[in-house]
Amino acid sequence: MNIYFCGSIRGGRQDVNVYQRIVKKLQQFGQVLTEHVSCDSLSEKGEDGALDGDKAIHDRDLEWLIMSDVIVAEVTQPSLGVGYELGRAVAMNKRVLCLFRPSSGKVLSAMIRGASTNSLFRVQDYTEDEVESFLEKYFNSITKN
């Protein structure tokens, strides 16, 4: 199974430790095409010099999105890029799981929370303590279907 993980990069790296826990768990269920999102070394400036600029990053990530069987997005830290990826995933009829921590004090965008009326698009509020067990339940349920 190919898994596309979305998390904030240029929108802020405050949740990188949570991203690392999520990616580590996701690796038990398949190949995480975007595991670099969880790297400590990735700053708010994003990838530098590894590719030929923003267009190359966009095109590469879009290819990965197309290849993906499921998209998992940590959406607590607002990010234009994550929102864009989620919109593209919905347009492709991809299975999407958005994870949000209410304990952050933030309010999730209505465009994300409201999209969960689609059977392929799910928003899950969670706490850090339960993220791994929730991901296990989620992936067990989709692999059975």
How would you describe what is shown here?
The protein has 145 residues and is of the alpha/beta class. It has five helices and five strands; from the N terminus they run βαβαβαβαβα. The chain has helices at residues 16-26, 54-67, 80-91, 110-113, 131-144, and strands at 2-6, 31-32, 70-74, 95-100, 121-125. The protein is globular and about 40 Å long. It starts with a strand and ends with a helix.
Question: Span between N and C termini?
Answer: 14 Å
The Cα radius of gyration reads 14 Å
Number of separate helices:
5
- Give helix and strand order, one letter per element, not per position: EHEHEHEHEH
Low-confidence parts lasting 5 or more residues at pLDDT below 50?
A: none
Instruction: Kindly state the percentage of residues in helix.
Output: 25-40%
User: Using DSSP, what is the number of strands?
Assistant: 5
Average residue pLDDT: 92
Choose one word for the global shape.
globular
* Biggest sheet character: 5 strands, parallel
Q: What is the structural class?
A: alpha/beta
Strand order of the largest sheet: 2-1-3-4-5
Strand % is 15-25%
